[in-house]
Design a protein that fits this description.
homotetramer, alpha/beta, Rossmann fold, Dihydrodipicolinate Reductase, domain 2, nine-stranded mixed sheet, disordered C terminus
Amino acid sequence: MINVGVIGVGYWGPNLIRNFIKNPHTHVNVICDLRTERLDSLRQIYPSLKAVQDYREVVHSKDIDLVVIATPVSTHYPLAKDALLEGKDILLTKPMTLTSTEAEELINLSEQKKRHIFVDHTFLFTGAVNKIKELIHNGQIGDLFYFDSVRVNLGLFQHDVNVIWDLAPHDISIMHNLLNEYPESIVATGAGHLGNKLEDVAYLTAYFKNNLIAHIHVNWLSPVKIRKTIIGGSEKMLVWDDLDSAEKIKIYDKGIEIQNVDREDRHRLLVSYRFGDMYAPRIDHTEALSLVVKEFADCIMENRPAITDGEAGLRILRILEAAEQSIKTEGANVPIGYLKEI
Amino acid sequence: MINVGVIGVGYWGPNLIRNFIKNPHTHVNVICDLRTERLDSLRQIYPSLKAVQDYREVVHSKDIDLVVIATPVSTHYPLAKDALLEGKDILLTKPMTLTSTEAEELINLSEQKKRHIFVDHTFLFTGAVNKIKELIHNGQIGDLFYFDSVRVNLGLFQHDVNVIWDLAPHDISIMHNLLNEYPESIVATGAGHLGNKLEDVAYLTAYFKNNLIAHIHVNWLSPVKIRKTIIGGSEKMLVWDDLDSAEKIKIYDKGIEIQNVDREDRHRLLVSYRFGDMYAPRIDHTEALSLVVKEFADCIMENRPAITDGEAGLRILRILEAAEQSIKTEGANVPIGYLKEI
Amino acid sequence: MINVGVIGVGYWGPNLIRNFIKNPHTHVNVICDLRTERLDSLRQIYPSLKAVQDYREVVHSKDIDLVVIATPVSTHYPLAKDALLEGKDILLTKPMTLTSTEAEELINLSEQKKRHIFVDHTFLFTGAVNKIKELIHNGQIGDLFYFDSVRVNLGLFQHDVNVIWDLAPHDISIMHNLLNEYPESIVATGAGHLGNKLEDVAYLTAYFKNNLIAHIHVNWLSPVKIRKTIIGGSEKMLVWDDLDSAEKIKIYDKGIEIQNVDREDRHRLLVSYRFGDMYAPRIDHTEALSLVVKEFADCIMENRPAITDGEAGLRILRILEAAEQSIKTEGANVPIGYLKEI
Amino acid sequence: MINVGVIGVGYWGPNLIRNFIKNPHTHVNVICDLRTERLDSLRQIYPSLKAVQDYREVVHSKDIDLVVIATPVSTHYPLAKDALLEGKDILLTKPMTLTSTEAEELINLSEQKKRHIFVDHTFLFTGAVNKIKELIHNGQIGDLFYFDSVRVNLGLFQHDVNVIWDLAPHDISIMHNLLNEYPESIVATGAGHLGNKLEDVAYLTAYFKNNLIAHIHVNWLSPVKIRKTIIGGSEKMLVWDDLDSAEKIKIYDKGIEIQNVDREDRHRLLVSYRFGDMYAPRIDHTEALSLVVKEFADCIMENRPAITDGEAGLRILRILEAAEQSIKTEGANVPIGYLKEI
């Protein structure tokens, strides 16, 4: 049995707790938050949980194996460092830390301490992402042309990071997972309107090899909620609408082909369009977070790295930092430096 | 009665012809196209129309007052120049010409010849754009935060311009018309996948004063058709879905307000969300192109410039050229130079 | 060449005229309406058409082979009778006549005169209906369980018939065509709210053999337009949304199976659900009315009956009359009498 | 503190338990089900709950004030009777019992024992129903013309009642609540396809005074989930789409007016259409079941009847029984007998 302590029980923490309680190999011992009303509200549901306000009671406890850190991102690094130093495995919500330097230090520390770092990129465990991955990897989509993702709605406004750091980690982790490639450079634009320095609307282009292009649109000030990803390939195109509960993924047998026709009398392009059927495969509806918890528990028990380990978290931070640099210079193209293989 | 000759009867020409026929002040004398099957097909509907293959029979005809040029954009300049030299008023489909230099030359020529240049930016005459303009101008939206426009579908692929030149003129003309401001700089990214040099997917950010930001996403390779514009303001936010025949415009009484609270004990932000009603105003459904034709006929009869005259067409070309330059340098920020007042 | 005269150029007449003009085997000689403004408006588009106000100039003309009657339904019978007596083929818009007695008389007269009666049930010629028919007839849907059709919107209010006579002929003709069976009895309910005696909201149940049931909901007072048909079968289920331009027909691999388990210890049902993929086949988008015109022209030239001949029109009238009788008695079950084989 | 025992923890029971746990005035002491796996699964979340398999341990317990009965409907009557005889207040899921005779007996018994009967018609406590009620009652909708409700999806198939008894109680309770009137007669049609005697598709028309008509369509075999109610009135029309999380209720300023014009020369109708704006009011999103629990707790503490008491449950049963009788006779019009005032 893996004993779990959870620090931070605001928006996402309670979901993690619920799933760690349901998992047969994990047991939640203690929850921690500065706000007692949150702790009280959770203890109404789970009266047997121990609740503390001082995170050190979690980190230093000998009864805890895995420390789950679901606090604002600016506190991730110090909490995670303390936990690793105490020999705990750690699970961080996304994004992993505020800087890649912090992330690298945690990765080094975890290697030294032979402990796990897990980052909760939940979307990688959804039925939708797994289905799309399968379609891409078995060749049905063909050569990839573009990846376009829109993630907009009103709020939840973050106080310590801008909208890219808040929302784009979802899209970037999905992009890495599906495209199985790392971008060469990033261009980002955006603006903030709420009297602080944080962008609330932002656009990110990622250039890959072979004319593959990705684009992410994130917005905290949209009156409507949109969660839509379009992927274009040479053989098929697909739309993933995460808000469509009935038909999340639609695969279109559509495309364009262009032939260069070079005859004596003229040089022109022949364009042919392919308009075929659409189909929407059945998607597994298992709650992704239960699979996240299962995977991390299995990794601990089998002593193997997770697909969303510290390195995966760091790769996303590098994109975020490049985007930040680009956005501050109003769209400069920022190359991504050397990185370990995905 | 204004006598009209139409050159180019491919996709858009027949719509112009139908509306010029319906207008009580205009009369279509002659139509012209290289492809006889197109001419034959139109003469089946309008047997009284004269049809020619040589455009000079239109441009040089003494019976023609207004020459409508609905041909591929690369032919706009020579056709328009000939027509102006012959003392005709001219109507060009969008975009006006291939370069701003060509457009400037046509504008100069038209001033010299005291003739009209009209550019058919049809969307400015739709009930939707007029309603949004009214809402912005009477202050209901408040300070503008962002303008986000998506115009994607499969084809129609153009042979002489990329997807930005083909589709974005719609969005740019709407953006100018609604925001009533001119951007300071442009960042554009994109990629092409069809063996020619033309981008088929592109993203354009326009930076305005006062943190106003606009973004345009155009794509020829999307499996689904999307025509959606979101505008965020300090008072209201609106979504225009041009494919929703019943409720094209939805206005949301939603927003975020942030106060900086600076107390002794802490410095933090207070965020308050406003979630109010939505309403969808009734939109005028008059065919926009009939209003375009009416406006241009009125301009000729009253000898006044149109809101979509040569200058308006040129302003859009400058954005397109900046976008082109940015896209070729993978996202460099390209400032827009001095321009006459909008 | 088949010479056509069209009586009635209100809402539907102009569509018929346009398609008869386009068809290579038909020629429109004369159009007729009591309202001169309608005639003038059509002559603006087709200056060569002869226009008259007295229908006898159509019916008695020696230059006319086919008389198209697109007038209010209460005038169908006298106009059609005159035309048949003059030896013309006739085309009636739906519903064929006001009563089955009128329809029978016209059928007898047409047999005597060896002339064609065509009824314009346009929907039977749409790509959607043909695709569904194909799916049903090749067994993909399995045994049919139900046919549910909703056809509601605001207006167009008719003056001489209620909403069932106005809208349900579409659904009934589709139902006959797809199910290839004739109902045994009808139950209809409804109500009128506009100070006349005509129902504006109505519901019609048709009982078939083998537990197949059909239901039609028609409404002139709905704030939203809905055109949706759901068909349930033992193997597949399908939804036809005629307002969805991209994916009109969706076929679901879904179902329920129930086994009676009779063991010693208990008697209970085992229910198993099948939730599979959905697919939306590509639909032919040829304008249905052009195929209607083609079929009727072919029938005249090949001297064969149409699938929507007088008998087909009469079968629909019998359902409408049964529905009328049921609705007047607030839901009494009205059996359908003997009818020729479909 | 009201002590609660819950019998039946299948689909709906756990939701009731969660809300009784959250309510500050109620306390769940014991849960009961024949299937131990269900009890175990709940005790994983709420380890402090006592779990039993014999319902008599709930009904006869001196520690229980309110017995919640969330079992299949065929068991409601004996369980409720036992609980009332033991002097407990009872809460029954819908429909209240299998017959109106059973319901009357329970009502009599509850009066004799001075105990409460609550029926969980959850929808009456949703923000949507309350908003619609407000709109109707303050006159915005005008005179009511029709109420049309569709509730279809695949499953969940019930073993002891047909689809009308399973799903229509929702629509009937909403209809009573909104229209504030009781129907005069019922016509119902339907069919079953799964080898048992239970209808899986059914249609119900309710006739009210003054030409008001209601229609309910319920279906267990629909490939798509629809939860849509349309209400037409003389002033406004509204659509409630319960699956639209953003804009559940849309109110349309649309209508038709007809004037009888009686002039010397002709007698005809003048029809005028009103096409105005649409608006979607903000809806309260409080979980309805928490309000159900609050209302019932308040009723017990204040010793007053609930709006969904035994009488309310009985009124719905009378409609269900009339529908049953009509459906068995293939659509006969079944009058509703004398009933206490709503």
